[in-house]
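Ticket #4471: structure export looks truncated?
Reporter: QA, pipeline team
Priority: medium

Steps to reproduce: submit the single chain below to the structure queue and open the exported record.
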Amino acid sequence: MGFFNSKEKIFDDWDVISTFLKSETLLQNKGELTPARRAGILYSIDNSNEFLVNFSKEISSILYEGEGATKTSYEIKKDGEEMRWIILEDGNFTDLVSSTYTIGNAIGSNSDKNNLIAAIFELYLSVKIDENSSRTGVRSYCIYRYDRKAFYPFIPTGDNEGERDKAAESVLGKDLRDSGLIIEKDFSQWMGVWGIPF
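Actual output as written to the record:
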């Protein structure tokens, strides 16, 4: 069964990703979030797909030519033999979000949709957890899963699988949802991504 039932609107990627702009502004104004300059797209390689194999030759024209072109810089990194990261950097958060969508859309339009794993945005979190604890300036991530058409927070506390701040994730997830971001409802789908290279 899919994440959205038949009575719910089926969103496309831009419908969901674009809501991050409003949410980020609201939470930044509250002093809770500070966006970093970086985002990344994680995707799997299909050696039978010429577009993916030669993607390093395509990315410049995708980002820098035509309507909506940005000045977002990029780097492509290997993650094993079958996975790749496209790391994007831009001091303009709106352009960073737009470039992230554009790259993901290009991959999805020229390959099997299953090749797209996630778009990941780097943030810094300052928030009160409860009466006795808070977090200040903690590196955090907001992850968009293409297969779920939803975001969720991820706050690793170490490099080993399972090391994450679930209490802070819960607070951030609620605040992101309250600010209008579409958040994954099934907590078991808040998959950790350790070893993010930014």
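Status: closed, not a bug. The export was complete when the record was re-opened. Leaving a note from the reviewer for reference: The CA atoms of residues 18 and 98 lie 8 Å apart.
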